[in-house]
Design goal:
- The complex is a heterotrimer of chains A (169), B (686) and C (121).
- In chain A, the strands form two sheets. Chain A has a five-stranded mixed β-sheet, with no helix packed on it. In chain A, strands 3-6-7-5-4 form a five-stranded mixed β-sheet.
- Chain A has a single domain, classed as OB fold (Dihydrolipoamide Acetyltransferase, E2P).
- With 169 residues, chain A is mainly beta.
- In chain B, strand 20 and strand 21 form a beta hairpin.
- Helix content of chain B is 43%, strand content 22%.
- The radius of gyration of chain B is 39 Å and the shape is elongated.
- The radius of gyration of chain C is 13 Å and the shape is globular.
- Classes of the chains: A mainly beta (169), B alpha+beta (686), C alpha/beta (121).
Chain lengths: 169, 686, 121
């Protein structure tokens, strides 16, 4: 008999054509696009703030974090309201994504470690990979991604992109 | 449940200890002041009583000793000496340690406990003629007797026993609960109706009680009335006579005859009886009383601070929602709705003021710690210092007060250590030997100003300058004004003390003070005259959660600028702002440098004939901020932008407008500093 | 109807522990922080027992007892006082002022109930 393993639910979403997965435990809510108030003098990936039922929610452009350029708004653009831990404190933050796919259940045993070479992203941001049908889904470490002040999650080798991102705005 | 009480007791005891400390410090100035002695006594008394009830026996025992000493003081049998005060103040600290449950077992605390107790007792015995305490101890028969014994109780209340609210029937009832009981009322003294006074008691009782309880339990029943009655309790048999029919017949006889039988005659009768031993116990009824619904009136309550925070949040939400209602009503234009909206606005404003008032506490609350610090530290440093406080009823938000204590303690330590000179040096300088530190608090608009001034040696700007050069903070040829030099003390790592002492040279400098005060949206400033003294001026917001601001718009974004910094608003021709290279505009005949917010925020210029320039106070200057439009005054309920925006210092928070739009609250001081620095660096590059 | 007991003590913890105990016993409890505060409750409304501390600011227990005894509505109301003092002097003073009895602090809930049972049924 196969040993019982843990099954976790993930919400999958798209940034450009890539599919990513975030543990549903981290996602509080999915919002449609609403009015964003820009905060001056902030880093490019900090999109601004939105009014989430009376409280102020900072919004991060996830695509910039993944070096995919600024989010281009479409009807499918969504905001994931995330529950992030920063230095032991729980913080809410919004993440702009191109579209939300579905909630899938993934057996821990099916998760492959993220390749240490060949991936363009720093490995600490990726919890693992899983193959569903023909797609590879990258399971993300949301706490780390949305608490770091690094502009992109790219590996050092592609260091130039940082400047590129800044000049793009 | 008991843990809850315990927690409450700790809170309360902490207050008592603080109050005790405060009263002692006042007593030191005024050693014969009766009300103060009473206050000291009362605080000890409460600690003692509560300590014993909530399991802090050590505290109870310790305060008992202290109380004994102060009881003598209160009765004029002992004087308030320095020795006593020092000992008591040390005890106050010790009580604090005892209150901390964990520490009560530590050896050093216990050693301290014993030492202090010994010293207190020595003082008590030395300073007084020993008071004689008369104690009528009743011999207690500790023998456990499970058999019922029979007692004969003669209870003759004084006529006016009921004057004190005593109901003798209850006492008889209580006897009944102790066992098997026959109570015979002797009513032959009841007068005729004409002479009858309903407030008087005319009845005596002959009670026969078979019980397993000892005689003390019986006398205990009458403990409240022992001076208001004649009471005799006699053991008449080691058995339960009340199961003996012959005995019961005798009792019936007494009842009918209405005659007290008397112990002698009764004993004769008993010996003539054949004793029949019967075990019979009749325990008191097991009463079950259900919890009644609460019907309380409370004159003052203590509220957990998270509940207050919640209240504040709700009030903030209400204010926001009300703004929305007002906006809607105005757009809609219905008179009825407008009237309602106006009413809601009035109410929510009152509610807001009320709620904010709850979290405001007078700065008085911090003073004891300061007084104590000055007292202890000046002694340690062999300096003579008097600490005075003015405007102690000035109120501040609770959280501000909490965050303020540490920086203020630091400032005071600095004053004591580096400011105030030794008495001899002061005399040589022609100053009174006793130094003075004054804490002054007052309101200034929406701010509270705290000034801490000493009449000490002041800050030597030359030394500061030299030190800053030595540390590479400024270049040797930098031309700095006196104020600029003084401000150097707030730069991280700068410490004015040439020799680092134990007192204030703990590696924590004025930069930390400044940062801590900045954390609560306050500002700190320093003024100093050599040999005259130093004054630190702290400017604080009244509350952290609401500000009166001016709502303005730059492109699509709304900003709130705190009214407290705004000097004036001007409409200026667009061309005047764009056709200037040094960013200076002439307003009311005065040159005012300005920042064009669109430009600063990297937004394309606004194509309009006139723009609004908000002139704000920045340090001692007036600086203009050009915005697109001014919307009007706005009461902003501050909401944090969150950790992600922590580095965006120019925006101190956000607020939600009536229509749900977010407006950003600008910290003009930080903004202008940032804009100015940027201008500077760009110029440097040229 | 539940009997009403007015508790007068400047110590919140004492007030709480007493009210908790008494409410559990089925009494309805009113609380006041000192003698003066207690007088506000004595406006003719039904109070069956007063339990008061002796040492309190503003108006102490003795002062309160004297006041209460001078009020026609409450001349006969039982009054217990809370005391830690074993000294007879204080007790006598309170008794002379018109107190019905006392409760020695510290007390366990049973002792409190016992004392109340002596004066209130």
């Amino acid at each position: 008999m196969k040993e019982a393993t843990k099954i976790n639910s993930y919400l999958t979403f798209k940034l450009r054509d890539e599919i990513f997965g975030a543990s549903v435990a981290k996602v509080l809510n999915i919002l449609e696009m609403i009015k964003i108030t820009k905060v001056p003098k902030a880093p490019v990936y900090m999109k601004g703030v939105i009014n989430l039922r009376g409280s102020v929610l900072p919004l991060i452009d996830t695509r910039i974090k993944f070096d995919m350029g600024e989010t281009v708004y479409t009807d499918n653009t969504c905001i994931l309201v995330l529950d992030i831990e920063i230095a032991g404190e729980t913080v809410h933050v919004g993440a702009l994504v191109d579209s939300v796919q579905e909630v899938i259940e993934i057996d821990d045993a099916d998760i492959q470690p993220s390749p240490s070479i060949g991936s363009k992203y720093k490995s600490e941001f990726i919890d693992g990979m899983v193959k569903i049908d023909n797609d590879f889904i990258m399971l993300l470490n949301m706490d780390l991604i949305f608490s770091t002040s690094e502009i992109t999650l790219l590996r050092e080798s592609s260091g130039d992109t940082q400047v590129e991102v800044e000049t793009r705005v | 449940m008991i843990d809850n009480f315990k927690k409450k007791f700790i809170e309360e005891a902490t207050e008592h200890i603080q109050d005790l400390e405060q009263a002692l410090l006042e007593l030191e100035q005024n050693p014969t002041n009766k009300p103060l002695i009473e206050r000291v006594f009362r605080a000890m008394h409460s600690l003692k009583g509560g300590g014993a009830m909530f399991g802090f026996e050590k505290i109870s025992e310790f305060t008992h000793n202290l109380e004994t000493a102060y009881d003598l003081v209160r009765n004029g049998e002992m004087e308030v000496t320095n020795e006593l005060l020092n000992l008591t103040l040390a005890s106050v600290d010790h009580l604090g340690a005892l209150l901390n449950d964990d520490s009560s077992n530590s050896e050093s605390v216990m050693a301290q406990n014993a030492d202090l107790m010994k010293k207190i007792n020595e003082l008590v015995t030395a300073g007084t003629v020993k008071k004689k305490t008369v104690h009528n101890t009743i011999e207690i028969d500790e023998e456990i007797n499970t058999k019922s014994q029979t007692y004969y109780i003669q209870f003759q209340p004084n006529e006016d026993i009921m004057r004190n609210g005593t109901n003798p029937i209850f006492l008889i009832d209580e006897l009944q609960s102790l066992g098997n009981c026959v109570a015979i009322p002797i009513v032959n003294k009841i007068p005729t109706l004409d002479d009858f006074d309903p407030n008087k008691c005319y009845i005596n009782w002959e009670v026969f009680l078979a019980t397993e309880s000892n005689i003390n339990s019986i006398t205990d029943v009458f403990i409240f009335v022992e001076d208001d009655c004649l009471l005799q309790v006699n053991l008449i048999s080691d058995t339960n006579l009340l199961t003996n029919q012959l005995f019961l017949d005798k009792l019936e006889e007494i009842n009918v005859n209405q005659h007290e039988i008397g112990i002698a005659q009764l004993q004769d009768f008993i010996t003539s009886l054949t004793a029949l031993e019967t075990k019979q116990s009749n325990k008191g009824k097991d009463e079950r009383i259900s919890l009644s619904s609460k019907d309380q009136t409370i004159s003052s309550i203590r509220v957990a601070s998270d509940k207050l925070d919640q209240l504040m949040n709700l009030v903030s939400e209400l204010v926001t929602t009300q703004a929305r209602l007002t906006l809607y009503a105005e757009n809609d234009g219905q008179t009825e709705l407008l009237a309602i909206a106006e009413n809601v606005q009035k109410l929510s404003r009152q509610l807001r003021d009320n709620a904010f008032g709850i979290v405001l506490i007078p700065i008085e609350n911090m003073l004891t710690r300061f007084q104590r610090l000055v007292r202890d530290l000046s002694k340690e440093l062999k300096k003579e210092v008097v600490f005075e406080a003015e405007g102690t009823d000035t109120e501040l938000d609770k959280t501000i007060i909490e965050s303020l204590t540490d920086p203020l303690m630091h400032i005071l330590r600095n004053s004591l250590d580096h400011g105030i000179e030794l008495p001899q040096i002061r005399k040589n300088k022609g100053k009174p030997a006793e130094g003075r530190i004054l804490l002054k608090a007052f309101y200034s608009g929406a701010n509270v100003i705290l000034q801490i001034s000493d009449d000490g040696s002041g800050i030597d700007v030359n030394i500061i300058r030299a030190k800053a050069i030595q540390k590479g903070l400024i270049s040797p040829d930098a031309a700095l004004t006196k104020k600029e030099i003084l401000d150097l003390i707030f730069i991280p790592g700068f410490s004015t003390a040439t020799n680092i002492t134990d007192v204030s040279g703990r590696g924590v400098g004025m930069d930390v003070v400044k940062r801590k005060i900045a954390d609560i949206r306050g500002e700190v400033d320093v003024e100093s005259e050599l040999n005259m003294g130093t004054t630190l001026i702290i400017k604080l917001p009244l509350t952290l959660s609401i500000i009166d601001g001016l709502l303005v718009k730059v492109e699509e974004t709304f900003y709130v600028i705190p009214l407290s910094v705004i000097d004036k608003i001007y409409a200026v021709e667009h061309s005047k702002l764009t056709n200037t290279f040094n960013n200076v505009v002439v307003l009311d005949g005065e040159q005012v440098s300005f920042f064009y917010l669109r430009h600063e925020f990297e937004i394309a210029p606004f194509d309009t004939a006139y723009e609004q320039v908000i002139v704000v106070n920045y340090e001692d200057k007036r600086v203009g901020l050009a915005v697109d439009t001014v919307i009007g005054e706005y009461q902003a309920v501050l909401k944090p932008l969150g950790k992600h925006y922590k580095k965006q210092e120019i925006i101190s928070g956000a607020t939600i407008l009536g229509d749900g739009t977010i407006a950003l609250v600008m910290d003009t001081n930080k903004a202008i500093k940032q804009f100015a620095n940027k201008t500077l660096t760009t110029e440097d590059h040229k | 109807m539940a009997k009403s007991i007015l508790i007068v003590d400047d110590s919140e913890s004492i007030r709480e522990v007493v009210s908790f105990t008494l409410e559990h016993e089925g009494y309805s409890v009113l609380v006041a922080v000192d003698g003066k505060d207690a007088l506000k409750f004595l406006d003719g409304s039904k109070i069956d027992l007063i339990i008061t501390d002796l040492h309190m600011p503003v108006m102490d227990g003795i002062g309160l007892i004297k006041e209460v005894r001078s009020m026609p509505d409450y001349q006969r109301i039982p009054i217990l006082f809370l005391t830690t003092e074993s000294q007879a002097a204080k007790k006598m003073e309170a008794k002379e002022a018109g107190a019905t009895g006392w409760i020695i602090k510290p007390f366990v809930p049973a002792k409190l109930v016992e004392a109340i049972n002596k004066v209130l049924r």
